[in-house]
Structures are given as C-alpha cells and as structure tokens.
C-alpha cells in the first residue's frame, strides 16, 4: 500500500476512482434526468428542456430563491466580519480572560445538530419578543441572525488557518517603515489574507443558501426560503423541476469553484516564475 | 488590553453569548415548563404575585421521555445508526484521503477540491438524488432486473440501509478532509527508515502511518458522528416509518404536536448525550490550533 512519496499505487488509484464515483454518480444521474421529457424520473423518454421552462415559470420557487439569495448575501457578509474579528482575537491576542469559552463557542456550531440550534434560537427569539418586544415578528431578520451565527464559525476556521501560517515579518517590516497597527492590518494583512476571506464568505454564503432545518424553526410567515420549497415538493415524491434546479445549482457552484482554482493556480505559477527570475538575476 | 483589542474581541464574543450560549439556557428553562394552548405555548417558570416568588419546575417532560419507549428507542437507535455510519465513513474515507495525500502536489489541490465540491451544492438535493436511484422502479433496481441478477425489484428506499447510505454519502467529505490534513503532514523519511529496517509496506502502514493519523481519525469521526445523531433530513426522506431517529422525533414533537417544552426536553437530553463527543472534538481542535501556532 505504501509507495514512495509522491506516487499513487494501483490500490490508491482504485480508492480514488471508487470514492469519486460514489460522490459524483448520483449528482450526474440527477443532472442527466433533468433533460428527460417524461415526468417519470426513472424512465428515459427523450431529450427535452421543458422542466427548465416550468422552473422559470414557478413563481413560488423563484420568490423563495430570491429570499434565500438575499439572506445568504447578508448573513455571509456579517459572518465574514464577525468571523474575521474572532480569528484575529484567537490567533493574534495570545491568552485572555474567557478565551476557553470563546474557543468553545466558535467550534461548537461546526458539529451541533441543526435541530438543537434551530429550536434553541427560536425559543430565544420568542423569549426576547416577550420580554423586550424584539424581534416583533420572525422572518428574514431572525434567519439572518441564525445563519450569521453558524457562518462565522466556518469563516473563522478558514481565516484563522490562513492567519496562523502568515509570515509576520511582512507586518514587522511595514511597522519599521512607520505604519501604525491599524494601517498595517488594512494595507498589509488584509490584502494577503484576501483569498481566505473570499473563500470564507463563499462558504458562509453556500451554507446559508443550503440550510433547511434551522431556517424552518426560526422563519415566520412570508420568509419561505428555497430549501423549504424544495423540501415540501420532494416530500411528495420525485419532481423533474427539482432536477432542473439541481442542475443549475451544481453548474453554478462547479463553475465558480473551478474558476477560483484556476486563478489560484495561475497566481501560484506566476509567483514561482517570478521567484526563479529573481534568483537568476 | 487596549480598547481596540477589546472591541475586536468583544464584538464576536457578545454575539455568541447572546445567539449561541443564551439559547441553550433558555432551552433548559423551557424544558421544565408546562405545555399550554396559548401564544407562546408554554408556561412561565417563575411567578411573582403579592411579593411571593413561586417557581414551578415541571419534571413531566423528562418523565415522559423515560416512560415512552418511543424516545428511549429513538435515542438508542440514533446513537447506533450514527456510530455504524461513522465507521463505514472511516473505512471508505481513509483510503481516499490516503491516496490523495500520495498524489503529486499540484493534483492534490484539485482532488481535494473535488472532494469538497459536492458539499458546496445543496445537501437536500444530494439526499434527494438517492430517492430516484433507490426507488422500487428506480435506476438501481431497473439495472439489476435488466441484467438479470434479480427478478423482483428490491426494497431499498425507506429502509435503514438507505439511511446509512445517505449519512455516509452526505458526510464523507467531512471524514476525508481532516484525515488528509493529518496524513499530508507526515514525514516520509519515517517510512523509508522502516523499509530500510526490513518492515513490509503493510507493516509500516499499521505500525507508523495509522498510529500517527489517530488525530485526524478522531476529528473526522466527530465531525460525522455528532451531527449524524441529530440528523433530520436523511431519516425523513430516505428512512421508513420504523427508522426512529431522535432528530425526527424532536421535529415532530415541535412542528406536529406543537409541544415546545417536550421538544426542549428531547433537545436537552440529546445535548447531554453529545457532551462527551463534543468535548473530545473541541480538545482536538484546540490542540491542532496550538500545534499550528508553534509550527
């Protein structure tokens, strides 16, 4: 099984092939059948794009998608802000009072079962509404708060990993050249960790877009999100419109991720080239 | 600490105290309340009338959990299903993580991205994809009947098997990632030294690689096990009426029976059961952070 470093034996290749087939085959089947003419999702009766047409005419689905996108954009942004602040505090500030509790509260949302988070947040909102009159009603605001809370934990994982491997001599150099702490953070630190900030934001965005359970607990009338609509239609059985929606979603995610990977790889190659040039001189 | 540092720490800290910690305290409080037909549907614990403070602690929500077999069975079967699914995830995920860690560096990142990519698409839709595959006249049954391996379609959907499959499928990336992160840091000179001293590759794997990767195995297992115990979507869509899982029972108690205190008691007991695994996960995370800081 163990071969020399940097090599994959046939067993390894088999593991990879089996693993990726398992991960991707169900999604691919789903995408293929979104172009099936028949309503029966399992019998192929000819190529058609009519389910995409029906999807675009489904007002309920489109409305929910718009709600979900707005909530995801808002909560990813606040999660990025709070998660980055938390990462700076955890990685840079050494020990401080209450740090153990802070670390605990930052990592627990990563594993907490969603039904517990959803129920407990709802009960908080109800209690707050009773005692201080806010939030007056549940809806997009309460979902935004819920999604920000778990989103910031994921942002912190990505951003604090980047902060830890950060070469601090760059910051020290800027300080020596007379920049103040805040200036260094905005002009040196932030630009360098910006890829991590971007992937943290994107992670929080997709997690928010995807959440069914927590949103179901804290939503109110008039704030139905896309996963809620999908869930209620899936409960009734297989629907080709959901297949069409899935295909669009997977296509979007794959495009953005592959593009991101390609840009990073080009930057890395460029950097290596620059280093070699600098050394040659 | 200067005021700037204080502000940086206090903002996320206060947010988490209010929206993460406080809710748990409220759940515990409401689990001791009585169910009312009112808005909100539960009683106040403390009443202050005529200078007298009365506190009513209602233990019946917990007694109910103990007396109804449904809940006991639900907890036990959730723990069992999550544990077995975590084991399968480990058996499937470890070889994949190992193989990726052995790829040349530039293809490692692509392979890693391909592992993460499915979890960036909708969880709900990935579980839904299995309905079409597992149905009585679904793709797997049609294929098996077509080849002639079986005469009658198998009952695959709405079975415990489908629930295991769904959990393994949905959580596999969370098992692969931490194991990969651990394996990729190993010093390959250890294996070369073992080979020089006459160890077989398999022997070296079990004596060196596997023990060194225990940290990754624990992290991955906790990332799968803890959320799987409270899973709702997978047993709801892929499981049958006899596949009891506690997340589903909590959901029904809350949304169908509208018994908020009852649902809170279910949540509190689930949390107590999960405290040990959550603590293990947190210890591991804290150690990882310290190591990364030093390294």
Automatic annotation (TrEMBL), chain B:
Membrane topology: Multi-pass membrane protein
Major localisation: membrane
CDD domains: TM_PBP2 (cd06261)
Gene Ontology cellular component terms for the protein in this record: plasma membrane
ABC transmembrane type-1 domain segment(s): 75-281
Alphabetical list of InterPro entries matching this protein: MetI-like (IPR000515), MetI-like_sf (IPR035906)
PROSITE patterns, A to Z: ABC_TM1
Tree of life domain: Bacteria
Localization of this protein: Cell membrane
Gene Ontology biological process terms from the UniProt entry: transmembrane transport
Protein keywords: Cell membrane, Membrane, Transmembrane, Transmembrane helix, Transport
Ranges that cross the membrane: 12-32, 75-98, 110-131, 161-183, 204-229, 260-281
Cited Pfam families: BPD_transp_1
PANTHER family referenced in this protein's UniProt entry, alphabetically: INNER MEMBRANE ABC TRANSPORTER PERMEASE PROTEIN YDCU-RELATED-RELATED, PUTRESCINE TRANSPORT SYSTEM PERMEASE PROTEIN POTH
Family: Belongs to the binding-protein-dependent transport system permease family. CysTW subfamily.
Protein name: ABC transporter permease subunit
Organism: Mangrovimicrobium sediminis
Lineage: Bacteria, Pseudomonadati, Pseudomonadota, Gammaproteobacteria, Cellvibrionales
